[in-house]
């Protein structure tokens, strides 16, 4: 009998759509044939020969590509190689729906200041952590109205990642990306229910979930001048303890131009998209647009107020050593904010600024480069608004298509049959989100623009990579697939005393950069991954990474249904 060897054959461990290209990759050499049998009937329904073999520039491993795309009937199957090795997979009309659900649900588990209830969380129920009603103004954030040591209230929001802090730059990117999927496929999200406390209230769960964080963000704006504190944080990272046991004081630190612009952008965008539901959210849209305009005005007056933690620590006490989300270029933030403010208010000053700060090229959406979020919103705008952006929008669309063309170039013959994963530069901290999923999202937008199927086909390939068709054989999302991360760098998952990690989280993934305190990797870059709690450079989780996962999955699922 053939042995189940999930490391010998790599497939998308969640499932393929009937119409989708279906590829498996194996390390076995000299394969002659492979067969697919239907698991319930035992019948052989497909047999084939390898398509091609290939190696990466850095590896002597030969990967062989098996194509069973002609198989289109939904069901559960086994793929078997030369009668020796076998792997399960499935075909379904809603292949990615469970992933979209899990990726959105993950945000609920990250909620700060709220008990996570058994009705919604099952065994991952936990008491509330971090009320954040007594947050201290750090010396770096002092003003005449709010001198250092002043106490403010800034509850709710999501924990950023494996740590318990809340960072405006990353929060804004996260919501901006999720709203980019929502504005492209609103009907899809009216049906995407995730069993959160708000489910069934007539509002898409995606809006309810993001609202929980938007409310926190509003409290991060200094009402006196409109500037936005860069983050709410403990001076140093907490240990691996339960949220309710954390006792370190929490601070808001210096206002930064990047945080303030990201805040302006996402508030303006949310103001527009929440308007149809304003009777429920009671005045939020109006509050959000006012906050956005005030923030933008502050940023325009403080264009050089970057967040530089080293400099901050040379001037102020206590020292802050948590995540920096540092970025010394605010052009893209200006572009995104001016774009959203124009699209929501129609004021010509914002259109002028959008034109002034428009990038020359389309770049992948990542927390440190937000211009793609502006491009996505422009692409969803009315024909009349798009006409107003004619000075720069056609060039950006062209640049998106150009990038899509370069991404898919050669993907047909790579070791994992995908645009992602065959360049050394593809692997760095968070690259499963910031490269693999971001490429996928960009390819989908290129498809929406051009209707060229090959862009969509290649987006599916990157999704297959995330879900198991890759060098380590991991499906990189907790709780999904037959081989998934069990030990993420995630304080909530580590401290809860439950064996399984909290489900639905994308981990950072392979990253050959050495981490202090851990032995350096000697393997290929695409294998530089450790499923260990200590490995924050490969195995942390983060809200922005889950936003990429959700956006990627939801857009593919929306297009398939
Ligand atoms: O080096 C790559 C370069 O090769 C690549 O082309 C480029 C693409 O953008 O990225 C380059 O730089 C990386 C940078 O992120 C930008 O992505 C750095 O190597 C990498 O060290 C840096 O990692 C960031 C990390 O913090 C350290 O600053 C991650 O993006 C960021 O997600 C992560 O964020 C942390 C927070 O600070 C704290 N909370 C947890 C969270 C997740 O780990
Ligand atoms: O847990 C922290 C994680 O969220 C960050 O991404 C990472 C890099 O800033 O740092 C982690 O915290 C470690 C700290 O940097 C050094 N001491 C050990 C901490 C926990 O592993």
Description:
39% of the residues lie in helices and 9% in strands. It has 561 residues and is of the alpha+beta class. It is globular and about 75 Å long. A hairpin with an 8-residue loop joins β6 and β7. A 5-stranded mixed beta sheet has the order 1-9-8-4-5, with no helix packed on it. α10 runs parallel beside α12 (371-380) and α15 (431-450) runs antiparallel to α16. The protein has 2 domains: 1-95 and 410-561, Immunoglobulins (Immunoglobulin-like, Sandwich), CATH 2.60.40; 97-409, Glycosyltransferase (Alpha/alpha barrel), CATH 1.50.10. The protein has helices spanning 97-109, 118-121, 168-184, 186-191, 205-218, 257-274, 278-281, 284-301, 309-315, 331-345, 348-357, 371-380, 383-388, 393-408, 431-450, 453-466, 491-495, 536-539, 543-560, and strands at residues 3-4, 9-10, 23-26, 34-38, 44-48, 52-54, 63-67, 75-81, 85-91, 135-137, 151-152, 166-167, 231-233, 251-252. The model has no long low-confidence stretch (mean pLDDT 97). The longest helix is centred in the C-terminal third of the chain and has 20 residues, at 431-450. The chain is built from 19 helices and 14 strands. The chain binds ligand G3I and ligand 9MR. Residues 161-163, 237, 323, 536, 540 line the site of ligand 9MR.
Strand and helix layout:
Blueprint: E1 3-4, E2 9-10, E3 23-26, E4 34-38, E5 44-48, E6 52-54, E7 63-67, E8 75-81, E9 85-91, H1 97-109, H2 118-121, E10 135-137, E11 151-152, E12 166-167, H3 168-184, H4 186-191, H5 205-218, E13 231-233, E14 251-252, H6 257-274, H7 278-281, H8 284-301, H9 309-315, H10 331-345, H11 348-357, H12 371-380, H13 383-388, H14 393-408, H15 431-450, H16 453-466, H17 491-495, H18 536-539, H19 543-560
Parallel strand pairs: 1-9, 10-14
Antiparallel strand pairs: 2-3, 3-7, 4-5, 4-8, 6-7, 8-9, 10-11, 12-13, 13-14
Helix pairs in contact: 1-19, 3-5, 3-6, 3-12, 3-19, 6-8, 6-10, 8-10, 10-11, 10-12, 14-15, 15-16, 15-19
Bound molecules: ligand G3I and ligand 9MR.
Ligand 9MR binds at residues 161-163, 237, 323, 536, 540.
